[in-house]
Amino acid sequence: MRFKLLLCLLCLSLLISGCDILTEIPLPPSETPVSTPTPISPEEIIPSATLPAYPPQEPTPDPLINAVFTLQPGGPFYLPNFNHPEEGCNWLGVAGQVFDENGLEILNLTILAGNRLAGEDILAATTGEATAYGLGGYEIKLSSQPVNTSNLFWVQVVDSAGQSLSQRIFFDTFEDCEQNLALVNFIPLEAQNLP
Hints:
four-stranded antiparallel beta sheet, four-stranded mixed beta sheet, alpha+beta, globular, Immunoglobulin-like, 3 helices
């Protein structure tokens, strides 16, 4: 009886240990597998999230003291070039208006436009000169063909002395004849949160 109890205890201990006894038998030295080091890629050393993006994807806002206007909510809006049907798809531009706190068009403000790659090559228009977009309309031709860009082109409102009245509003453009006009309207900064 004692022998049976010992035999049961031995079997039970083997079951509890998960039969590790058989897997821990060392191989003879000639059969020991040799491990080779796995090469490490640069992405494993420096996570891609920490690598700087070049060129920067998002433009840095201008430091402004007297910002008065901001982008109209929902804008920019993209339309086909309806003001120059003779040019059709051979045109890419930005247009719109500047509104006051009562929703009325403001005339004789200067709108500047440019792109991050052109440096000092800046285009200008005056509100009220392009009435196809409304009484206070402005329009600036950016290119003679539509192109796909992301945050490359910008527009900005300035006063007659050249003082900034808005941040530079960066916008996308599309290589699409049905979206070769970016409509960018400005509203007073304090009105942006109104319903």
